[in-house]
Amino acid sequence: MSQSTESTTESNPFTRPGFIVAAAMVVALVAVGIVIFLLPKGQSSAEPAPASSSTVTASPSASSDGGKSICGLPGSAETTLGTAPQSKWELVGRIATPTDPKTFGPGESDSSGFRTCFAHSPTGALYAAMNIVALGSSGSTDLEQKLADKLLVPGAGRDAAMRQAAADSRTTGSSTPIQVRGFLIKSYTPGEANIDLAFETDKGALGRTTLSMRWMDGDWKVKPADDGTTYMGATQIRDLSGLILWSGV
């Protein structure tokens, strides 16, 4: 089992120790045959909540603290997102990722596929979080270094992430394909957002993790832990209860 775990760690960017790490850590364990449910005591296995067909009703406007997108995307005074946005999806690496360059982002993309500039709104924060996850799954050292440099909040965590990205020469993508299945914006202000994302592996295992986002320099960035980890509280879940269903595949 240790040999299998080591092999998965080598090939799966979500499971290696770097700023790409912990998002699918528990899910990856399932992929190598270690099934451990880390459910809080008393949590039920209720059926997943039905997907909503409603769209976000927020109209573009100046954000409440005056922050402007670096590429001119419209902001919103909304502070909640209670339904799934109607999203267009495209593959980034092997992960279906939302895209709306004129409204929510990414508003900018370079020749390497690096994607930046998201709207100053709850939906913009959600799109930014999902795109960062997808970029991190690509296995590209160049993209990992750009992520650490451009899309992490400066500090000890970003410094650690940049060191880890520079030291990591592997370019193989994830051997355990995952796709987003749902989200929950746990909190949102014009300056900070905490976003839960749920993923499913190709084997049907579900995992949930949190990204802590900060609005700075005209874009959403991830606040990493001091060790460079961008994802917090990764756990395996039984179903999608409590989440808003949202998926591109």
- Which range best describes the helical content: under 10%, 10-25%, 25-40%, 40-55%, 55-70% or over 70%? 10-25%
Main sheet overview: 6 strands, antiparallel
- Termini gap: 31 Å
Q: What's the total number of strands? A: 10
List the domain count as a whole number.
Answer: 1
Shape: globular
Number of helices: 5
Return residue spans where pLDDT drops below 50 for at least 5 consecutive residues: 1-66
What does this structure look like?
- By secondary structure, the protein is α+β, with helices and mostly antiparallel strands.
- The protein has one domain (2-245).
- The protein contains five helices and ten strands.
- The strands form three sheets. Strands 5, 6, 7, 8, 9 and 10 form a six-stranded antiparallel β-sheet that branches. A two-stranded antiparallel sheet has the order 1-2.
- Strand 5 and strand 6 (192-201) form a beta hairpin.
- Helix 4 packs antiparallel against helix 5 (156-167).
- The longest helix is centred in the middle third of the chain and has 15 residues, at 122-136.
- The protein is globular, with a radius of gyration of 17 Å.
- Residues 45-84 are annotated as: Disordered.
- It holds the Pfam family DUF8175.
- This is DUF8175 domain-containing protein.
- InterPro entries: DUF8175.
- The chain crosses the membrane at residues 20-39.
Protein topology:
Elements: H1 2-11, H2 25-31, E1 88-92, E2 95-99, E3 108-109, E4 115-116, H3 122-136, H4 141-150, H5 156-167, E5 178-188, E6 192-201, E7 206-216, E8 219-222, E9 231-237, E10 244-245
Antiparallel strand pairs: 1-2, 3-4, 5-6, 5-10, 6-7, 7-8, 7-9
Helix pairs in contact: 4-5
